[in-house]
Amino acid sequence: MREQFPVFDLHCDTAVELSLQHKDWASNDLHIDLERAGRLLTHHQFYAFCCVYDREGLPLPAPLAEARFLNAVSDFYSHLGQNNTTAKLCRNVEDLIVAAKENKQGVFLSLEGPEAIGCDPDRLEELKELGFLMTTLTWNYPNALAGPQGTDQGLTDLGKAFVRRAQELGIVIDVSHLSEKAFWDLIDVTTAPIVASHSNSRAICAHSRNLTDEQFKVICNLGGLVGLNLYAPFLNEKGIADFSDFKRHMDHFLDLGGFHHLAVGGDLDGCDRLPTGFTGVESWNDLGRWLLQQGEEEETVNNVFNNNAVHFALKHLQRSRVGR
Ligand SMILES: [Zn+2]
What we know:
- By secondary structure, this protein is an alpha/beta fold.
- It has a single domain (6-316), classed as Alpha-Beta Barrel (TIM Barrel), CATH 3.20.20.
- Helix content is 39%, strand content 13%.
- β4, α5 (124-129) and β5 (132-136) form a beta-alpha-beta unit.
- α1 packs across α3.
- The longest helix is centred in the first third of the chain and has 21 residues, at 62-82.
- The N and C termini lie far apart (49 Å).
- 49% of the residues are buried.
- Zinc ion binds at residues 112, 176-177, 198, 270.
């Protein structure tokens, strides 16, 4: 039986935790460090920056949110500098190819909560300059662009302008956290594939953070990706989950046509309740082995854990189209 699996995870909150808790990236007691990531066959990871709320989950005033964001980015650049023999920032597809060739972790940056740039379409170029290749439209609060899950607020005119500018720049729109109304408004205007970086199936676990079958199918039809989330309350309504819950969501999405569109977005370091037996980034190996033991095909596990996200990155995370 295989011991190691390749993983390309679409969402973690590790970068901001490193900054707030003054932790070391190479080795720490968070869910992700480079040492334990090295136990995977290969590891590429989107690091999300969510800086719009305080430790109690209350919204931060805009100047504070922005300061925390820029500080976390600056701290993460320092970590990248100190660990440039094991990890490489990927600003475009060429960087991923180099990272893979040099056997380094491909590091991708995403924004979770555009309040950190004032929800301003004119600041997306600045975001791209910082190396960000994906952004959500909301976190858990309504903003000038759209409403979050659990509300019926759609996409505003500013939200549409934000989507247009982001897609012009090649920044991918991440629909996790978005309201259903805003999601369907987005479908009307999007000109590029979209990603739900860390969302599960609402048919399997009825949580408003999860996707309906119709949402999943349209993301697939547009050539996008959905990353399976490990947060126990999104896997099982009881709030406690194990590997079998992960498999139920995975199998359901595969049945809906997800073979080339399903990925993982573990939400590591952004959630406090993981499935039993999953302790951190190294546990993807345990989950992969368990899935094979349950009869999942090796090709399916490889697609979900890694290949679909790699193919998406190679196809859609191109160089900036600015100036063309
Ligand atoms: Zn999130």
